[in-house]
Sequence to fold (526 residues):
Amino acid sequence: MQGIHGSRMSLLSFYSRNSQEVLGLVGQHLYLVAISTGAAIVVGVPLGILLTRRPTWRGPVLGVANVFQTVPSLALFGFLIPLPFIGGIGATTAIVALVLYALLPIVRNTYEGVAGVDPAVREAGRGMGMTDWQLLTQVEFPLGFGVILAGVRVATVVSIGTATIAAAIGAGGLGVYIFRGVAVVDDTLILAGALPAALMALAADGLLGVAERRFAWRRK
Amino acid sequence: MSPHPLSPSPFGRGGPPGRPRWSLGLVVLLLTGCGQRDRIVVGSKNFTESDLLGEIVAQQIERRTALPVGRRFHLGGTFVCHQAITSGQIDLYVEYTGTAYTAVLKHAPVADRDSVYGAVARDYAERFGLVWGKPFGFDNTFAITVRQRDATRYGLKRISDLAPLASRWKAGFGYEFLERADGFRGLANAYGLRFAAPPTAMDLGLTYRALAEGKVDVIAGNSTDGQIQALDLVVLEDDRHYFPPYEAAPVIRQVAVTRHPDIAVALAQLGGKMSDAEMRRLNALADVEHRDIATIARDWLRVNVP
Fold:
């Protein structure tokens, strides 16, 4: 380690020397996480709700979402490269992979949140003559929202970490420093990518945690 | 599959956590193993050829000595192997002279075969207490690779033929090639390559697929990769001799050789036994025909080192 690295610099001087590049990569990273988590919410929340209406689909759908969690990212990229529209190299492929990885916590928590509403409350709603849509939008979804938000929180925090793999498919992001650092074993480079990603994850966790608590408070 | 298989990256999706009983066994194994080091641990880098050579070396030691051999294969690349061997985590792995010369020792690239081997062997002994064994006999150089279709259409044979086309072409390279002293920057200078956009930085294993699928037009693979023929790709000749020689040879800790001199004897029998074509054939057996690495190594040893 000592022997193979002549010129190493501190993290601070690295950042001051490469501030433009760092900001660019942080921006790319945020973009990847925002788009992919957003898409995972748009797909995952309705899917989770659908599962509460079609209980027999629950096993297969969650099973598939589980399987995506276990596919190594590089293997997934390999499969995606030849596909039109959602494949190729660059941000699109990375976002597709990140969406697939983010689906499980969102679908599962949406299902749990909505299905976990106290049956007595649901019965009361039905007793008042609510339609299924009214029951969903006025009772189940608001009551399950805290749990759904918790799923979004997990998905976001995990995506911030996972988005570093986007660098393997030419999509940039903070993983670029990590990959470069691993290729030449330069701890400074690895930290230059890992540290902002960790801070970003902590910040997202904190912010979404506040939202979750605020919501729980309002419900009481 | 790719010669640098699509493995889970260290920061990608991890595998499932080990079962408790397993880890307990591992702990016991480690504790007892650390007591006396009567075991040789062979490492390899994270691509097929390195795994194959690691397995050949491991089996050769098993055949010729009474030592138990541990295998720590598919470690994360040159620097992880270097760290592992200098810290004593592994005793032995197969390295390439040009890689050691430029990437580990940080010398400027030189194209003279003998001087590179000599310098590497001397510096490794002095600085790291590591001994270089006899080279296997083949040269695995960086292979600037294009699709056969393009090579025919534009009459591409040598890397210098690329220069006039580069401004319209897209390149995709692995991070190691982009960062190394004997990598892209030097190559671009030596050949005056100016691509339309900066090369796409991506995982090395994915570059072959990206090239075959037409997502990029030129990549830097390895000349002994079985993938090149399988995907109908062509390697361009390094006509300005930019790349140093990359002869593969076992690198072993001096301590291990001193304690078990019969290892050196076993390794010496492998010297000069593997040609470029033979290495390519073995890589293809593993990557294209998906044959088991241990079997390929066993068959090769039976025929070539009886």
